[in-house]
Design brief:
154 residues, alpha/beta, five-stranded mixed beta sheet, 5 helices, 9 strands
């Protein structure tokens, strides 16, 4: 599937930390800051999602909803979310289907054969369902430019 600016964002149905299935449609009508993280509880992912958490009110005031996705299961995500008091959904793409649909699959993370994860990436999906912003890093240790994300939302 395509995941470029101007494309319709691929849909998904993934479990949240309470095992409730969530889908892209339920967030429609707002901009969606869709953050793919490499691994729950890893230091850089924690820094990224805590930065988004701390910007949550500002992002919300700009008419956007944060949704994070990792390839971890809902149980690991729940521990991670509770520890950090995330106010936004953290979804588990444990089959990596959505990660592949957005074309952000990182194979063999840290040279561990068949340990696949999401590339650190951020998409902003516009109210019409199209991708308006796309940032994908080949370096799992690189964080997104948070000011650029907020400026785009403005």
């Amino acid at each position: 599937m395509a995941s470029n600016i101007g494309d319709i964002a691929p849909g998904f149905e993934l479990p949240d930390t309470e095992l409730k299935m969530r889908n892209l449609e339920e967030f429609k009508g707002k901009k969606i800051v869709l953050s793919f993280i490499v691994a729950a509880s890893s230091p850089v992912c924690e820094a990224e999602l805590c930065t988004l958490r701390d910007s949550w009110q500002e992002i919300s005031d700009l008419g956007a909803q944060i949704v994070a996705i990792s390839n971890d299961g809902p149980f690991a995500n729940k521990v991670f979310a509770e520890k950090n008091n995330f106010k936004f959904p953290l979804l588990g793409d444990y089959t990596s289907k959505t990660i592949q649909d957005y074309d952000v699959l990182m194979k063999d993370l840290l040279h561990l054969k068949d340990y696949n994860a999401a590339k650190r990436s951020v998409f902003i999906i516009m109210e019409d369902g199209k991708i308006g912003y796309r940032w994908v890093s080949e370096d799992p240790l690189k964080e997104p430019n948070y000011e650029e994300i907020k400026n785009f939302l403005k």
